[in-house]
Amino acid sequence: MALHVTHLEVEIGGKTLLHSATFHVGIGQKVALVGPNGAGKTTLLRMLAGILPPSAGTVRLDGGELASLSRRAVASRISYLPQQLPAEVPLAVGSYLRLARYARQVGGRDSGGGADGRDSAVEQALTATGLEHLRDRPLAELSGGERQLAHLAGALVQGGDLWLVDEPTSHLD
Q: CA-to-CA distance for 72 and 99, rounded, in angstroms?
């Protein structure tokens, strides 16, 4: 999957946070954004995820303009893990992870479901993050680190080929 950014600009509250950014991220590449607080790193990631529209410029995903794709199409290809995660989501971990599979559902059924009714992608993500024992626990009752792991598991089950992660190790020991 290739991501092409051309002349991307963002202005918020009269302040230009990004001016004419142009870059390409190819398949298998890892890129880190480094800069001081308030420099616009999170804003850039939100634009690359299609959550925030740029003031100018384009973001293309495999040649197609990101802004023209449906949210479901974007979610099936891009996993976005924000730095600040809501604690008040009224779901248990397992339910949250099944919801994170929304982009993979076809006709109301998850394409990764197993014969026993459990979603194999959810089970794999719970195992990978060590959260099996918290499957039925509400997100609001988790510690900050446990919640961060639950959201990481959510990105795993979302299954995007491109990951945009914003401070993924915050709250983790």
A: 12
89: nearest Cα among 130, 128, 139: 139
Report DSSP letters for the chain, one per residue.
Answer: --EEEEEEEEEETTEEEEEEEEEEE-TT--------TTSSHHHHHHHHTTSS--SEEEEEETTEEGGGS-HHHHHHHEEEE-SS--S---SBHHHHHHHHTGGGEETTEETTB-TTSSBHHHHHHHHHHT-GGGTTSBGGGS-HHHHHHHHHHHHHHHT-SEEEESSTTTT--
Query: What residues does 18 pair with on adjacent strands?
Result: 10
Pairing mode of beta strands 78-81, 162-165 = parallel
Torsion angle, alpha carbons of 44, 11, 171, 130, to 10: -40
Q: Is 88 exposed, middle or buried (0-12, 13-18, 19+ CB in 10 A)?
A: exposed
The predicted model scores a pTM of 0.80
> What angle do helix axes 93-100 and 144-158 make, rounded to 10 degrees?
30
Examine the pLDDT at 164 and tell me if it is beyond 80.
Answer: yes
| pLDDT tens by residue, 95-130 | 999 988 887 765 555 555 544 446 788 999 999 999
